[in-house]
Amino acid sequence: MKKAILKGLIGLTTLSEFAHANDNTTLDEVVVTATRTPQLQETVIADTTVIGSEEIKRAGQNTLIEVLQRQAGIEISNTGGAGKTSGIFMRGTNTGHVVVLIDGVRMQSATAGTTTLENIPVQHIDRIEIVRGPASSLYGQDAIGGVIQIFTKKGVAGFKPYANLGFGTYDTTLVEAGLRGKQADTTYAINVSANKTNGFSAYDTANSNLNDKDGYRNFAVSGSLSQLIAEGHELGLTFIHSKGRTRFDNRFNLTSAFNPAYSDHADIENNAWSLFSKNQILDNWHSTVRIGQGVDESVTYSADFAAPTRSLFRTKQDQLNWQNDISLPVGVLTLMYDRLEDKVDSTTEFKNTKRTNEGYVASYVANIQAHTFQASVREDHNSSFGNNVTGGLGYGYQINDAWRISGSYGSAFKAPSFNDLFFPDSFGFVTSNPNLRPEKSDNLEASLRYREDATSASITAYENKIRDLIILDSAFIPVNLNKATIRGLTLAASHRWDNLDLSGSADIQSPRDDASDNLLVRRANRHGQLNLGYTLQDWRFGAEMVTSSERYNDAANTLRMGGYTIFNLTAQYKLQRDWTLQARANNIFDKDYRLALDGNPATTGFAYNTPGANVFVNIRYEPQ
């Protein structure tokens, strides 16, 4: 039975391969996001990155956006510091072109069409899997650019408490604690965190009405509980609750007719929970049923007209997934049903506040000697946009022990957001377009990878053609752009010499509007990152570089944001077996750079500030 379960779960490599890997203590990472089934990372066809718990802790970063900024293929935007609206551009696609999952549950605002990444606390994250490239044939709508799956801290063998306390620039404080354990067949975890920063002015302006500190605070709790009922049968639950308050600058406060003394702010809340049942129905049939809900809520309090106003946007995403993994004599066949129901509650009256999407998936993955095959097809029935069929096809070949080549094709789509479709007119200004069509894309890519001992390297080339791409025109009305083409090349490499390790990536891309040949908004032609680490007994030192070429804040490419390079330093010292002291210095040369603009700074607009040189120090207790 155990052997059958292992084959049913992995199904993509032989038991002898596992034994060989274990004998040499080089067992590869197991990835689930790339195919929705466990697969050894070295056999995954998609361009995939795994960020483990040690890397997250060792980096000492305070926000998820900072962690993602250091990954290949990802650019970020931010509107004025911690807790402010942030986004990621994966392989040059839009911020809403990435599916974000927390423990298998979608987390997204149906009104904005994006995920509130700035309010997901990194302290609760144990692992992140990033899959670049289209994945709608597995995950449905929105996965034009890729998928990011976040795994919160779960129970581990034994009884392991942990705690962390930190202080830093901008009056930043952090407290976190948790407990992870396992008793007999019961596994459990509970994690709590609270952090606060006074921040800096979100707008880069000398105007006294706006040049204040726009801080952010957050309280979060997450947990999990699972029970092994019998061999091959497990019941469990996961949850995360994150509540934040962020302050921001309001351009209406520029005149004395309004209330400049009022501190505009927004309360942000994100929740995700799920109940699951994992069952080995037959030796070759593994079933997982998961029901869950993702909640994204923002309540904005703003003195737009002297007296404060309240604006609510709440999205509830009810979700049901039934996945069946069937181990065949060769490979694994997955049959799946997905249901997603979006419900919008808002102080703004939308014409439509509900829509559903049902997806039916069939996928197949197999390893046959040096060959890897992957195929998937999905049909989505959307209550607003009818049927959408997407597919994916991939092939990989292990040339020898070190070299591997692969290629793939994938199609994807994204349904327009409720804001894009239905946001009502305000003061006579049209800000929505009910005639929008879903965005659709076709992507081709190929990669060559090298891996041997302490060295790894890869080069991935791709071309993503997007039809009916949604952008804001010069009047800030969402429209379907005829076509956009994103061509790119991602190079990544790492090497370890005894106590020294070096890794980095470079992205050369051309994300452009086919008609005008302009760069897509806030996307660069070149960006990259470099990381250097050195370990000396109980010490570890690190240096990081993040760089980007120029970008534009508008579709016409008139509002230029210059290129930038920032440098960070880290240090870690193991005080005792269970105690670690960490320090992190960001932007050590105090580089002044921009990730977003609000309008044209030359007229009535402003540039959003980014953090200057800053330091964060923390001490962690975690029994080994």
Largest sheet: 22 strands, antiparallel, barrel
* Total domain modules: 1
The CATH homologous superfamily: TonB-dependent receptor, beta-barrel domain
| Terminal CA distance | 33 Å
Q: What is the architecture at the second tier of CATH?
A: Beta Barrel
Under CATH, the topology can be stated as Maltoporin, Chain A
Rg: 24 Å
Total of DSSP H or I helical runs spanning 4+ residues:
6
| Strands, total number | 35
> In CATH's first tier, which class applies?
Mainly Beta
What percent strand? over 45%
Secondary structure category = mainly beta
- Provide mean pLDDT, rounded: 91
Low-pLDDT stretches: 1-27
Shape descriptor: globular
State the share of residues found in helices, binned by percent: under 10%
In short:
With 624 residues, this protein is mainly β.
Which keywords apply here?
624 residues; mainly beta; Maltoporin, Chain A; 6 helices; 35 strands; disordered N terminus; transmembrane; transport; signal
List the helices and strands and how they pair.
Elements: H1 2-9, H2 15-23, E1 30-31, E2 39-40, E3 47-51, H3 53-59, H4 64-69, E4 74-78, E5 86-90, E6 98-102, E7 105-106, E8 125-132, H5 136-139, E9 146-152, E10 159-168, E11 172-183, E12 186-200, E13 214-230, E14 233-247, E15 265-282, E16 285-305, E17 307-327, E18 332-346, E19 354-368, E20 371-382, E21 386-398, E22 403-414, H6 418-422, E23 439-452, E24 455-472, E25 478-497, E26 500-513, E27 526-536, E28 539-548, E29 551-552, E30 560-561, E31 564-576, E32 579-586, E33 597-598, E34 606-607, E35 614-621
Parallel strand pairs: 6-9
Antiparallel strand pairs: 1-2, 3-8, 4-5, 6-7, 8-9, 10-11, 10-35, 11-12, 12-13, 13-14, 14-15, 15-16, 16-17, 17-18, 18-19, 19-20, 20-21, 21-22, 22-23, 23-24, 24-25, 25-26, 26-27, 27-28, 28-31, 29-30, 31-32, 32-35, 33-34
